[in-house]
């Protein structure tokens, strides 16, 4: 990471994103989606997935989602920003979340 703080692999990946589209990608293209820490780069994400699940990572793509304005009762607020990582695994590897 560029900030100089070294995070452990279990601190980089916050949670897997299990959605209908994500399930389709995992079954057909060996791609898995995770919510990750905003400061993590692609190298950190690759190392974390390989360490936690003992798989071979071929490619990592990231997306940053900006917060949206939301109304909370009588006040306006924003949802938080978050980062999504799409990780492509080797053809022979897979991750079982359930």
Descriptive account of the structure:
- With 98 residues, the chain is of the alpha+beta class.
- Helices cover 27% and strands 36% of the residues.
- It is built from 3 helices and 6 strands, in the order αβαβαββββ.
- The chain has helices spanning 9-12, 20-29, 42-53; strands at residues 13-16, 31-36, 57-65, 69-72, 75-78, 82-89.
- Strands 1-2-6-3 form a 4-stranded antiparallel sheet.
- A hairpin with a 2-residue loop joins strand 4 (69-72) and strand 5.
- The longest helix has 12 residues, at 42-53.
- The N and C termini lie far apart (30 Å).
- 15% of the residues are buried.
Task: Throw out a few tags for this protein.
98 residues; alpha+beta; two-stranded antiparallel sheet; globular
Spatial ordering of strands, largest sheet: 1-2-6-3
Tally of individual helices:
3
Low-confidence regions: none
Sheet bearing the most strands, described?
4 strands, antiparallel
Helix content, binned percent: 25-40%
Strand content: 35-45%
Structural class: alpha+beta
Distance, first to last CA: 30 Å
Query: Which shape, going by the Cα principal axes?
Result: globular
Order of H and E elements: HEHEHEEEE
**In angstroms, what is the radius of gyration?**
15 Å
Number of strands: 6
Estimate the mean pLDDT confidence. 92
